[in-house]
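INFO worker-7 received task bundle
INFO bundle size: 2
INFO processing item 0
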Amino acid sequence: MKKIKVMSVFGTRPEAIKMAPLVQTLAQRPEFESICCLTGQHREMLDSVMQIFRLTAQYDLNIMQKQQTLSSITTRALLGMEQALQEAQPDLVLVHGDTSTTFAGALAAFYQKVPVGHVEAGLRTYDRYSPFPEEMNRTLVSDIAALHFAPTSANVDNLRRESVQGEIFRTGNTVIDAMRTTVRPDYRFATAELNELDFKSRRVIVLTCHRRENYGQPMHDILRAVRDVAERYEDVEIVYPVHLSPAVRACAQEELGGVPHVHLIDPVDVEEMHNLMARCCFVMTDSGGLQEEAPALGKPVLVLRRETERPEAVAAGTVRLAGVAHDDVLREVCTLLDDPAAYHRMAHAVNPYGDGHACERIADAIAWHFGLRAERPADFDPAG
């Protein structure tokens, strides 16, 4: 039997976290030949995920440059992908989510007339500039893809309203699959400062804030609210793994440097972050992925954005939009810290994003598409 050659393309840490278990699943199935192509859009953070999941890339474009722009990322990824695709001759290219790597990878595959499968398809804010450039990247890939792997029913509905071409599958989110192996009760942190935290008697808040649309005044307002929280609550510790972006690091130092109970640390790898979230009180983030990961661990999430392309979590009650204004962020944090009932409602809401079997569903869907499986795989049902 001729194997289906599947090339998985990713270049940032969030993509790698969500694609790693899928690459592993495909490699374990006899009907597939699994190929991994990295763009290297984020270098250091990407490499750590590859090491943790013990993945090897057959192609590494290594496009990252200092002070890279969206245009340079897209151009270098597109040119590098052209050569990789001509050499590998895959039957299917898988891209994930909404990064510049995702868009360039899908476009390069289209130019080579290779079908594209879009993992984590159908998320929308319907504001082309927020998140920027992710919303437009994701939308454009939907017009290219032949297979759409949508995590939730709402994502499926978005794609159907847009009348996209190709097959749509509701699979759940692959990040839940990844967390089945990364979170361990006996885990010891590589970051020494985290091992010194008293997670039992202190309320630890995990913070991430790095999105491009929050650069400037929004990020300053968010971090000033965080500073006020640290000064107001004696039993609270705030852990902020600060993104490597110079703009983010400068803002973090200006607003939070030297503030008691605030721990500014370097970015942590996926195992470190998942186990940190498993032990924390709740999460404040402008990240997309953490909105899915933290609820799987029973942790409320305050989203530091004006809108989210993950409204299912808001509807389910696992996530609240805190916005980016100082007073709004401060109010939402204080509600979770001061109102046990509000905290309990969020912590015990049902996570709508997956059951840990998304990768199996995607692999089955690919096999069905290529005629190696008689029945179309059943869709993910959050109700069980």
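INFO item 0 finished
INFO processing item 1
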Amino acid sequence: MARSVNKVVLIGNLGDDPELRYTGSGTAVCNMSLATNESYTNSDGEEVQQTEWHDVVAWGRLGEVCNEYLERGSQVYFEGKIETNQWEDQDGNTRYSTEVKALEATFLGEGPDGAVPGGGQPAQGQSPAPSQRRAGGQGGASGGGPPSQSGGDGQPGSDETFEPDDDLPF
């Protein structure tokens, strides 16, 4: 039987300040827009810059930490999975949106006011520079215990726990 994998790794810069809100049951939801850039040389020998935009959502304590320490322009590493949502618009048309559900975040660089992001634990098996801190499902982010990945608010996958299989060099 084949095993499937839904894993996303992104490193980019926020295009806007994070937007934090809470569900009716009090679970934090942080929406972010992340830009990733790549460049290549076209057939005419000209360098072409291409930007791709990603909608990233962080739930629970991870969302609160992202909102607290990230701002427009912040460089951040996200690990998570792709989720597609379906709904009907006002005209009854079926609409879809695809987003990255962040399960881990590493803040690359300084946060607002030059503060080093989070008091989070470093990635397993690594000793990051003081300006690189990690927050996510297993390591405690600033403010105590691990981020909540559940809340009984009907959010898909809210009862899942992410556990990395191994230490990857990236």
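INFO item 1 finished
INFO post-check item 1: The first strand starts at residue 8 and ends at 14.
INFO post-check item 1: The CA atoms of residues 5 and 81 lie 9 Å apart.
INFO worker-7 idle
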